[in-house]
Amino acid sequence: MRIFLCGGGSGEQIIEATRRFSDVIDHTRPLLYVPLAMESERYPSCLEWISGELRELNISNIEMVTSAEELAGKELKNYSAIYIGGGNTFKLLSDLKTSGAFDRIKQYIEQDGIVFGGSAGAIIFGESLESCMLDDENNVGLRDFSGFNVLNGISLLCHYTNRTEEKDRESTEYLKELSKRLKVVALPEEDTIFINGDQIEVIGTRPYYYFENGIREERHCLSTLRGCDFY
Predict the structure, then answer these.
(1) Residues 217, 210: contact at Cβ < 8 Å?
(2) Distance between CA 23 and CA 14 in Å, rounded?
(3) CA distances from 4 to 133, 167, 168, 203 (A)
(4) For the whole prediction, is pTM greater than 0.85?
(5) Blockwise average pLDDT, block size 10, the chain, 231 residues
(6) Beta-carbon contacts of residue 190 (< 8 Å; ≥ 6 apart)
(7) CA-CA-CA-CA torsion for 81, 91, 5, 169, nearest 10 degrees?
(8) Are the C-beta atoms of 180 and 216 separated by less than 8 Å?
(9) Could you count the other beta carbons within 10 Å of the beta carbon of residue 169?
(10) 1 secondary structure, DSSP code
(11) Integer Cα distance of 23 and 203 in angstroms
């Protein structure tokens, strides 16, 4: 299992995480891009964005799916990696589960598949989407909030401390209360969790925050080159 869970940044914000991603993928195979958290009319601009974001990686081809059903029908092992972008987390998870793509991705990562998820694309790999209730609207009526749970019972929030002070204060109080029954890691846009088999580290330049039992703990990466232990 090799999974990059990005706090929502791009470009220079996450340059070291992007380099690490480049190190582990097979550049001779295409990358599969999943923009399904966004509205469908934005998919063309999403493809432009990802093409620019990964231009320096020399990937042979970026192939974008435009529906969860299309994703469910893909032979995922034929791709160098899956890149799941941001948007509405509830829409994304709902589409993946109703189409069967969720189970296909789960099987893929269990077979050492590589995934890079940003923002919503990262949050779905936590235990529960309850962590982002204040950030995204559940317009699709999703009832099963359980994600891929690749962090052994930890849920995720992204863009934390990159927003207004009022928004972060609201999120902090919500996450403290939520953490009385769910563990949560809140990532700034500059930090990326890298799960490499049984090793977990955070690559980034800013503090991230761990919430458990109503308490928020600030944690720091050692450097952009060494990363830091997640636990």
Answers:
(1) yes
(2) 14
(3) 22, 26, 24, 10
(4) yes
(5) 96 96 96 98 96 90 98 98 98 98 98 97 98 97 98 97 97 98 97 94 94 96 54 58
(6) 7, 9, 13, 14, 204, 205, 206
(7) 170
(8) no
(9) 11
(10) -
(11) 14
